[in-house]
Every structure is written in structure tokens, then in C-alpha cells.
Design a protein that fits this description.
This protein is mainly alpha-helical. Among the domains are: 35-74; 78-105. 82% of the residues lie in helices and 0% in strands. It has three helices and no strands. It is elongated, with a radius of gyration of 38 Å.
């Protein structure tokens, strides 16, 4: 394509390029049916393996969720006495830390 090319020149060049591409496409060797069947079978096996892996992963996730639910149900909420003891322990720790800070001055 040159600077002074006209529309007809460009259209002709485009037609030539299309014709060349068509000839290249037609000159390809024919598809080997045996090879195509092998490729299709390999693709099918890959899809089956992928589906099996996904099913296994889903089953593992469901089992883990069920196990977590059982553990959560087994862990009973703390009683009132246990909560009071934990609160008292936190209070004692704060008081102890405060006394240590005062001694440092």
C-alpha cells in the first residue's frame, strides 16, 4: 500500500489477501479420523477426571462442614460460674499489671 493508493487498489489487495488465505486453508491435509477420535476420547477422559475430582472435593467439604457442626454442638457454652471465674481472672491480671507498673516508678 502506498501513500497515493486509491480505494480500488486497497480493495483489490484485500481481495488478493482473502484469496491467498482461502488457498492456504484448502491446501491443509485432511483430518485423520483415527487421530481425531483419539483426541476426542482423551478430552472425554479429562472431563471425567475433572468431574470426579470436583465431586471428591465437594464431598470432602461437606464432611468437613458436618464435622465442624458436630464440634460446635459438642462445645457447650460456658456456665455462669465459668464466665465469672474467667472474668475474675482477667480482673486479677489487670490489678497485678497495674501494681507492677506502680512499683517501676
Amino acid at each position: 500500500m502506498t501513500y497515493k493508493s486509491t480505494f480500488q487498489d486497497r480493495a483489490g489487495q484485500a481481495a488478493q489477501a482473502k484469496q491467498k488465505a482461502l488457498e492456504q486453508y484448502k491446501s491443509r491435509p485432511p483430518v485423520d479420523e483415527k487421530l481425531a477420535a483419539e483426541r476426542a476420547a482423551a478430552g472425554q477422559r479429562r472431563e471425567e477426571a475433572k468431574a470426579e475430582k470436583a465431586a471428591t472435593k465437594k464431598a470432602e467439604a461437606e464432611a468437613k462442614a458436618a464435622d465442624d457442626a458436630v464440634k460446635a454442638a459438642a462445645a457447650a457454652p460456658p456456665t455462669e460460674a465459668e464466665r465469672k471465674a474467667a472474668r475474675d481472672a482477667r480482673y486479677a491480671a489487670r490489678k497485678s499489671a497495674k501494681k507492677e507498673r506502680r512499683r517501676g516508678y
